[in-house]
Structure formats: structure tokens, C-alpha cells
Amino acid sequence: MTSTFPNISISTERLVLRPLDEDDVPALAEMMNDEQVGAWTSVPQPYSEEQARAWVTQHVPGERESGRGTDLAVTEFLTQRLVGVVRLTETDWHVRSTELSYIIAPWARGEGYASEAALATAQWLLGDQKFERIELRTAADNTAAQQVAQKIGCISEGVLRGACIVRVRADDGTWSEVRSDYIVWSLLPEDLDGASEELADTGGFTSFTDWN
């Protein structure tokens, strides 16, 4: 029987992570059209509201129901504004492992939201959900993503040579693809000790299942 992630809401001092819904579509489309998102992800460029709606209403529920993963909207606690998305993919329920990635809106960068959201998700996975391994993959030149991985306590395991495609945007707006390396990071339950103290300093988090 395929296992699935529950509908979940995770709250930190500044953020609420919850299931994506159709109200997120305009902000999601705007966020996905950012140049950094285009460079470091496989998100189509340009990205329309129709594509965002299809992702929220079809792709995300399909991933969750199949057991492959889930996607969470990251929102500001006070304003409810969409800060970004945390994604769980390539989930192996027997090994109890999953791959974590995230996208942060350009206006919200530099505030520590990525590490706060990723750490809260990791705490929930390795604690409540009894997972044994979380994996992150960062492009070799994506130093911001690497800093987040380090901040939440991940251990660098090595390099997958030539395993990543990144994109470069020219002055005329066209995109070209460049092959790069992946740096592989892992997070195990015992790696969270120092990161847990940092999260506690920001108020910790609570989780609520069966979010509606």
C-alpha cells in the first residue's frame, strides 16, 4: 500500500507552511517568472497563470496521492503573502527518505525564510513522520542554496558530475542551457541538534494535520 504525506500545516514564528490552493496561483506565477528561478530550476519560462493553476490543481495532488511527494506553500504568518514553495519529491517510503527543494520569491530573499522553512520541514519529516534521510541537491554555482543547506545542518556527500542543467538568460531574453554539477547534501536525524537550537531561538514550530 502506497504511503502518502498528510495534509499538513507547519507554523514557525514568521511563517506558515500549508497546502497550495488556487488562491496562490497569481503570486505563484509571478514568483516562477523570476530570473533566478529560471536559472536554477526546470520551471518553464515564461510561466503562465494557467500553468500555475494546472500545477496546483493537478500535479501537486497527483504527486501526493501517488506517494511520490508533496508541495507546501510558504506564507508569511502576519500578511499571509506567498513567500515561496517547499517541495518533497523522489520519496522512498521503505527507506524513509525524500528529496527536499525550495523556491523563494525574489522580494523575500535575504530574510532567512528559505532556511526557516526548510528546517521546519526537516524537523517535521525526521520527527513526526519518522523519516531517516532528507536529500538536497544544489547546482555547483548556486551558492545561496548551498548556504541554506549548511545552515540547516546538512552534510555534503559529494559531487554528481555533469548531472545538472542550468539556464542562462541572454540580453534579448532568450534562455540557453549549460551543463553543470550537482552537490549532494543529506540530513539525518542526528544532524539536527545544532539546527534545532537555532530554530528554537526563533520560536520553534508546531504542526497541524488534516489542514483545510
Query: What portion of residues is helical?
Result: 25-40%
Radius of gyration over C-alpha positions, nearest whole angstrom: 17 Å
What is the count of helical runs? 6
Stretches with pLDDT under 50, minimum 5 residues: 202-212
How are helices and strands ordered from N to C?
Answer: EEHHHEEEHEHEEHE
Q: Overall 3D geometry?
A: globular
User: How would you write the strand order of the largest sheet?
Assistant: 7-8-6-5-4-3-2-1-9
Query: What is the arithmetic mean of pLDDT?
Result: 90
In total, the number of strands is 9
* Structural class based on helices, strands and sheet pairing: alpha+beta
How much of the polypeptide forms β-strand, as a percent range?
A: 25-35%
Largest sheet, strands/sense/barrel: 9 strands, mixed
N→C terminal distance: 25 Å
Explained architecture:
With 212 residues, this protein is of the alpha+beta class. It is built from six helices and nine strands; from the N terminus they run ββαααβββαβαββαβ. A nine-stranded mixed β-sheet has the order 7-8-6-5-4-3-2-1-9, sandwiched between helices. Strand 7 (155-169) and strand 8 (175-187) form a beta hairpin. Helix 1 (25-32) crosses helix 3. Mean pLDDT is 90; it is low at 202-212.
What's a quick, concise take on this entry?
The chain contains six helices and nine strands, in the order ββαααβββαβαββαβ. With 212 residues, the protein is an alpha+beta fold.
What key attributes describe this structure?
disordered C terminus, 6 helices, globular, nine-stranded mixed β-sheet, alpha+beta, 212 residues
